[in-house]
């Protein structure tokens, strides 16, 4: 059997590498229109950072795993074609700012129809609106010259930072297909691929639309938990309760469960906001404005939390950060990834820059070039293939990036922790304090530091959702 995956990104790359590793009898080709991305997959410096990924790729690359820009050739030869291309939020026209832009998906489907010479199973791996499979099916069948296509929805639930672990041991694999004999046959064929390593009872099969909606629903529920605990964090600060204690207490309830209850500066990543906006749009289109409003609130609270954080920083530092050096520790949207798409750090940095701060940024996995791109790119522009993104945006002069936390914090007035990297917990904060301007502030946007120890050193500390320092108490939290 031959598999081809269109789109060698955060999903296509790791997913296919794991399929190749677990299915030595299957030949897997991952193709992309981005030449530098494919070159990186074929080099020692993979285009994405994921713990354990290097190992998996090294074991299979050149044996049954290939990365190539010869898109048409590999699609033509494949029995199963996964499509894992970008599905950005539309920025123009009907549904702008909400609906999914299916340009890349549609062009992939047209190409599959054009080049195919044998029957194929086409698998939706990208997150798409409900009923996309039906639209894609129409494109394929109207252009097929008699070739038969079966379309399946197989949304991906991996989390960046733990992608390899999640792929090795998924909570579930979801396969949606047409409820016809041909549809069932295709579902069984894809099931057979996953059954190489996933226990049968964890492979769920549904109809196409349930599978599509389940992915949007899962992300909406996950993001909603974060917004719920973040909403509580604001109330904790106002009342003197401690959000960590509240989370722990409610998480012990088996109906609620302990995961995904950490208060923070906000969620980020390429999916949560995009997928909820998409869900909101689908609800509106289906005449369900109340349901749309309900989910929209998850994003509003996330934006509120990022604003609230910026306002805390500015108001604590005598209501201005103009020309003050602020060290930003962590820029990626979570630890163990270099991915900065929709990271809360972007909005926090922009907020501080709006008040004329000077920023010194350190993240172990994010380059200066990436930070500059993120701070100058327009909303949603990031979610397009690399060669279609704006070339060289103007650099933000008030921002510098360094490769060391001690350098970033030297002479700084304040520190913002924006990503929960483990290494930040091990820093020598006495040394950092001695080299900072006084009073020295720490704003812990991830609640990873021991605030009592920091206070003993002399810092003024703000931790999200925790009882406030006397210093911060009378400062307005939201302007
Ligand atoms: P990505 O941006 O990292 O990768 C997409 C790749 O597709 C890019 O390398 C691009 O050059 C390529 N591409 C676009 N059009 C193409 C075409 N016509 N032919 C060949 N290659 C083409 O995106 P990522 O993060 O891998 O996401 C892909 C899809 O998976 C999206 O729909 C996303 O919502 C979904 N998803 C993402 C998850 C994540 O954690 N990043 C998790 C689950 C789903």
Automatic annotation (TrEMBL):
Pathway given in the UniProt record: Nucleotide-sugar biosynthesis; UDP-alpha-D-glucuronate biosynthesis; UDP-alpha-D-glucuronate from UDP-alpha-D-glucose: step 1/1
SUPFAM superfamilies tied to this protein: 6-phosphogluconate dehydrogenase C-terminal domain-like, NAD(P)-binding Rossmann-fold domains, UDP-glucose/GDP-mannose dehydrogenase C-terminal domain
UniProt keyword list: NAD, Oxidoreductase
Domain UDP-glucose/GDP-mannose dehydrogenase C-terminal per the UniProt entry, residue ranges: 327-451
UniProt xrefs under SMART domains: UDPG_MGDP_dh_C
The reaction(s) this protein catalyses: UDP-alpha-D-glucose + 2 NAD(+) + H2O = UDP-alpha-D-glucuronate + 2 NADH + 3 H(+)
Residues reported in the UniProt entry to bind NAD(+): 7-12, 32, 37, 85-89, 126-127, 160, 271-274, 341
MF annotations from Gene Ontology: NAD binding; UDP-glucose 6-dehydrogenase activity
GO biological process, one term: glycosaminoglycan biosynthetic process
Matching InterPro entries: 6-PGluconate_DH-like_C_sf, NAD(P)-bd_dom_sf, UDP-Glc/GDP-Man, UDP-Glc/GDP-Man_DH_C, UDP-Glc/GDP-Man_DH_C_sf, UDP-Glc/GDP-Man_DH_dimer, UDP-Glc/GDP-Man_DH_N, UDPglc_DH_euk
Keyword Oxidoreductase: yes
EC annotation from Swiss-Prot or TrEMBL: 1.1.1.22
Record-linked Pfam families: UDPG_MGDP_dh, UDPG_MGDP_dh_C, UDPG_MGDP_dh_N
Catalytic residues in the record: 271 (nucleophile)
The keyword Manganese belongs to this UniProt entry's keyword annotation: no
Family designation: Belongs to the UDP-glucose/GDP-mannose dehydrogenase family.
Xref: PANTHER family: UDP-GLUCOSE 6-DEHYDROGENASE 2 (PTHR11374:SF64), UDP-GLUCOSE DEHYDROGENASE/UDP-MANNAC DEHYDROGENASE (PTHR11374)
Name of the protein in its database record: UDP-glucose 6-dehydrogenase
């Amino acid at each position: 059997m031959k598999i081809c995956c269109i789109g060698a990104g955060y999903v296509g790359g790791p997913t296919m590498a794991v399929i190749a590793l677990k299915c030595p009898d299957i030949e897997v080709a991952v193709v992309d229109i981005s030449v530098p991305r494919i070159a990186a997959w074929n080099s020692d410096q993979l285009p994405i950072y994921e713990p354990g990924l290097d190992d998996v790729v090294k074991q299979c690359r050149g044996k049954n795993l290939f990365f190539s820009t010869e898109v048409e050739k590999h699609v033509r030869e494949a029995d199963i074609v996964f499509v894992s291309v970008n599905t950005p939020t539309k920025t123009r026209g009907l549904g702008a700012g909400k609906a999914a832009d299916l340009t890349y998906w549609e062009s992939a489907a047209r190409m599959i129809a054009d080049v195919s010479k044998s029957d194929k199973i086409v698998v939706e791996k990208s997150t798409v609106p409900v009923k996309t499979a039906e639209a894609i099916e129409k494109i394929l069948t109207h252009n097929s010259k008699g070739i038969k296509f079966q379309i399946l929805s197989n949304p991906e639930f991996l989390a960046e930072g733990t992608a390899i672990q999640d792929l090795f041991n998924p909570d579930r694999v979801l396969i949606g297909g047409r409820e016809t004999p041909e549809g069932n046959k295709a579902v069984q064929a894809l099931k057979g691929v996953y059954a190489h390593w996933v226990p049968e009872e964890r492979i769920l099969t549904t109809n196409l639309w349930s599978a599509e909606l389940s992915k949007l629903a899962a992300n909406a529920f996950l993001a909603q938990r974060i917004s719920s605990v973040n909403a509580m964090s604001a109330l904790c600060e106002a009342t003197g309760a401690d959000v960590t204690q509240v989370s722990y207490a409610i998480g012990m309830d088996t109906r609620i469960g302990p995961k995904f209850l950490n208060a923070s500066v906000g969620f980020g990543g390429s999916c949560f906001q995009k997928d909820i906006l998409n869900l909101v749009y689908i609800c509106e289109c289906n005449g369900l404005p109340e349901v749309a409003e309900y989910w929209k609130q998850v994003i509003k609270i996330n934006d509120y939390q990022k604003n609230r954080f910026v306002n805390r920083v500015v108001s604590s530092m005598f209501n201005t950060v103009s020309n003050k050096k602020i060290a930003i520790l962590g820029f990626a949207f979570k630890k163990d990834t270099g991915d900065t798409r929709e990271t809360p750090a972007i909005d926090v940095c922009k907020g501080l820059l709006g008040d004329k701060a000077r920023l010194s940024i350190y993240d172990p996995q994010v380059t200066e070039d990436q930070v500059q791109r993120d701070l100058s790119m327009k909303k949603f522009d990031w979610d397009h293939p690399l060669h279609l993104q704006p070339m060289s945006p103007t650099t933000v002069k008030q921002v510098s990036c360094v490769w060391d936390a001690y350098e970033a914090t030297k002479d700084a007035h304040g520190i913002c922790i924006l990503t929960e990297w483990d290494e930040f917990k091990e820093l020598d904060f006495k040394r950092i304090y001695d080299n900072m301007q006084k009073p020295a502030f720490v704003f812990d946007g991830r609640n990873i530091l021991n605030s009592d120890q920091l206070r003993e050193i002399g810092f003024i500390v703000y931790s999200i959702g925790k009882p406030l320092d006397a210093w911060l108490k009378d400062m307005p939290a939201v302007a």
